[in-house]
Amino acid sequence: MAAGLAVLATAAGPALAHHSLTAYNGRRRKALEGEVVKFSFSHPHPYLVVKAAEPGRPPVDWKLEMDNLAELSGIGMSIHTFRAGDRVNVSGDPAKDGSPTMYLRRLDRPKDGLHYEQERITPVLRKGG
Q1: Which domain covers residue 83, as residue numbers?
Q2: Structural Rg of the chain based on CA atoms
Q3: What whole-number distance in Å separates Cα of residue 38 and Cα of residue 122?
Q4: Helix, strand, coil abundance in the chain, percent, nearest 5
Q5: Which pLDDT score, from 0 to 100, does residue 5 have?
Q6: Contact 101, 111 (CB under 8 A)
Q7: pLDDT tens per residue, range 40-75
Q8: What is the CATH number of the domain that holds 16?
Q9: CA–CA–CA angle 21, 94, 14 (5° rounding)
Q10: Spatial distance between the Cα atoms of 18 and 73, rounded to a whole number of angstroms
Q11: What pLDDT is recorded for position 54?
Q12: How high is the pLDDT of residue 55?
């Protein structure tokens, strides 16, 4: 039994490291408004690319990493949830290295009331009506 637990613990190490959010600054939130350029609904972590302009700066493509594909599928997200051209308001944990990357915590799509949130362990998706 102890040998079996040791094997599981060893195998879980890389998986836990993969899901680490250490590349992001969880103590600071960044908010942006922009337009979806791309939605990649892929394994292991889907992501959005959003073109957003900050005051006094030219538009930049921001890569917004999301929770894992299985959980997002489980809450009703699909390859069709976001389309290029969708206007969105987003906020999340920015990359520590200053690159235009963040871990997505909240997203609102005003045109139809869609709301995505990843504040706790399980993500939430509410579709407006």
Answers
A1: 2-126
A2: 16
A3: 24
A4: 20, 40, 45
A5: 42
A6: no
A7: 999 999 999 999 998 899 999 999 999 999 999 999
A8: 2.40.50.140
A9: 15
A10: 20
A11: 86
A12: 87
Token pair, residue 10, equals: 């060893």
Q: How many structural domains are present in the chain? A: 1
Residue 87 tokens, joined: 């206007």
pLDDT for 128 equals 80
pLDDT mean across residues, the chain: 87
Residue 86: which residues within 8 A CB-CB, separation 6 or more? Answer: 35, 36, 109, 111
What is each CA distance from 121 to 38, 117, 124, in whole angstroms?
A: 25, 10, 10
Cβ atoms of residues 45 and 66 within 8 Å: yes
What is the reported pLDDT for 17? Answer: 38
- Nearest to 86, CA basis, from 116, 120, 42, 57: 116
Residues in the chain: 129
| CA of residue 68 relative to chain centroid, distance | 9
- Which residues, in sequence order, are bridge partners of residue 24? 95
pLDDT classification of 23: cutoffs 50, 70, 90: confident
